[in-house]
Specification:
The chain contains three helices and no strands.
Length: 70
């Protein structure tokens, strides 16, 4: 840990992880609140989005993210 590039990379990794956690929390809370909405036109797309991510394996999601949709 004496090289400054290693410390800079560790700090960058930490910042990216914190930002991803914060963004995921905001998106998850937003989806949870929309799924509780009494209006069906709000609730159905949120249910489909959540169902899609719950119903597919994480490895498939990572492959689609990496290679893109066909």
């Amino acid at each position: 840990l004496t090289d400054w590039r290693i410390l800079a990379g560790a700090l960058t990794s930490l910042l990216v992880a914190v930002a991803a956690q914060a963004l995921g929390t905001v998106i998850g809370l937003g989806l949870a609140l929309v799924r509780l909405a009494p209006r069906r036109w709000l609730r159905v797309p949120a249910d489909l989005f959540v169902g899609l991510f719950r119903g597919t394996p994480p490895m498939l999601q990572l492959l689609l993210l990496y290679f893109g949709l066909p």
